[in-house]
Structure formats: structure tokens, C-alpha cells
Amino acid sequence: MDDNxxxxxxxxxAKEAVGKLTGDKRKETEGKTDQAKGGAxxxxxxxxxxxxxxKDSLDD
Length: 60
Hints:
Layout lengths: L2 H20 L2 H35 L1
Helix pairs in contact: 1-2
């Protein structure tokens, strides 16, 4: 997982927690969205790494 995806997840958890504490459903939803965005970025990064590994093994 890269730094950007981890940052999005942490930011999302914080927003969600603040939203829950204050009763702000919009902030809570933004937090969940940021967490999902971070997860998607992480998955894309993992897929790119796997694809690069496959390419490298075929090049050898």
C-alpha cells in the first residue's frame, strides 16, 4: 500500500469519527468515502506491482 492510499484511509477514519461524535452524517459519509478511495488506490497499486512482477519474470 502506498502512502497516498494509507493517508486517505487515515483521513477517512478521522472524518468518520468526527462525524459520528458530532452527529454530522455528511462528514461521516465523507469519511467512509475517503476510506473506500484509499482502499481502491491500494488495490490498484497492488495490481500494478503484480503486473510488473509478471512482466519482469517473462523478460528473464
